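Chapter summary example.
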Amino acid sequence: IIPFYFTRWLQDRFKVNVYIQLTDDEKFLEESRGLNLEDTVRWSNENALDIIASGFDPDRTFIFQDTEYIKNMYPIALRVARKVNFSWVRAVFGFTYETNIGLIFYPALQIVPSLFEKKRCLIPAAIDQDPYWRVQRDIAESLGYYKAAQIHSKFLPPLTGPVGKMSASKPESAIYLHDDPKTVRKKIWQAYSGGQPTVELHRKLGGNPEVDVAFQWLYFFFEPDDSKLKKLEEDYRAGKLLSGEMKNILIEKVAEFLEVHQKRRREAKELLHLFKYDGELAREMWKKIYK
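The structure predicted for these 291 residues follows.
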């Protein structure tokens, strides 16, 4: 959810349009997920509620599902696809001869929203999305559009330690947006720390905030005040602040964030139509066919 909060911040500051693609088709095509098309459509709408809860402007934001908006995108997706051959996408995405042809075509669709406006598109996203935008940058100008610009976000370290990333198959590695305060406390309390084995040693040797997950989460998202972060880091290194105290600070911040987010998510059900169909930008987008 962090890239969406950052994108909303950009929208607030620069008063720009935001286009959010819900890739229900891609999720269906990924056979390892074992989802039918009805599942992916339903989950896309659920994801949209969390996105709306991030605080986007309903008149400057268009949220669309690929399976629903495909008629408007397909002509330009064909132009993109014609520029990219199989050997190229195989090299970039690691496709094999066992990959279904839907996934092989899909990059053409994901590139399309970056061409919605005759302006340079800025894409805040996790680093794993980079291959799509490298292809976009190689072909955009030949289609008469600007190369996309990117801002990459790091993966937030999992609660289980500084190496790897959060995984749905390991619920203890992540905080979910629907988690209750009790679950949040339990997960964070068990999180990997950079402290010493005993309080005595920690007071003497200090902790390592670079591997302490609680500090890293505060650093990346949950503590906006840089002066407070600096004090937390200094106190932790000096042994003045214990690992449990760092975790308690994070627990309070996360619980407060989730309380607000979950309230906004409930309210988002009444706003969904504005982002998909009835807001100012959405109405404009449904009138357009991109060729």
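To summarize the output: The radius of gyration is 22 Å.
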